[in-house]
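Before surveying the methods themselves, we first show a specimen of the format, giving the amino acid sequence and backbone structure tokens:

:::
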Amino acid sequence: MNFLLKPLSVIYDAITYQRNKSYDNNASKTFNFDLPIISVGNLSVGGTGKTPFVEFLIQYYSENKKVGVLSRGYGRKTKGPIRAHESSTAKEIGDEPMQYHSKYDDVEVVVSEQRVMGVPFFENTELIILDDAYQHRAIGRNVNIMLSDSSKPFFQDHVLPYGRLRERREGAERAQIIIFTKVDEESFDQSNREEFISQSKKYSKGNVFFTSIYYGEPYSLHNQKKVNLPDEVILLTSIANPNPLIREVEKYSSISKHYKFRDHYSFTEKTIERIENELPKGSTVVITEKDAVKLKDITTKSELKFIVMPILPKVLFDQEDELFHCINSLLN
């Protein structure tokens, strides 16, 4: 199969390279705004822990600033710029923007395929976080953060479709901060850290940091009460990489079945009805917060018990203060 994928990767690489060169040479215009902007994105497709990291930034900066999130709204059934409102749904604004909107009352959320067109829709925002905009170079940013899954670091990956990179490794040059995510704290030591930093410096002058995944207390989907996981559960996911979640759940429960859907899958009542018919009445189903925003309204009458596993990143090697110092110095 590789003999087919490699030539296709060469073609895809040529296209993305020329697109980036048009920005580098100012043939394509980048629009800048008065509001400070932090961009969070990645070179690869999905699975880098971008959503938890955006929430990490929201929680830090919303203590002192009015924060807004600007996203494409991938998977939504609408088009054009939309500012999230009281009755917004995941189908209207996308599952990740809906997650931000439902969790953070004081955070403005705007979706727009053309990020530049979305900025004017913010009303009270002092700081914009761009969600998944590393390749969206039409909008300027003060801080460019690139995430990379530590289990498949960008410096070992290849351009689509042979690999999972949206553009060649040299695209990391634009990153002021590189963060390797989902690090296994038990096996990742100082020598691994030094090797990752050394490899990254071949492509970027950006500061390098590392994060692991931290799971919060599970809670009930419909009443938000904290709960304990029972001995046996069902897993239901529509995320790019469910493996970290599987490892976490298996610390406490046996997973008797895993319903694994593609990333950003749009659940329907028929989907839930089919699953419900296959399971014993009252079964416990573990889901992510990303899927919770899509499942909440369509599972109110279900006899299944849905438990949500919240997630946040943890900055490793005692570098959280250094990370925010780096971001703040770029903002200022």
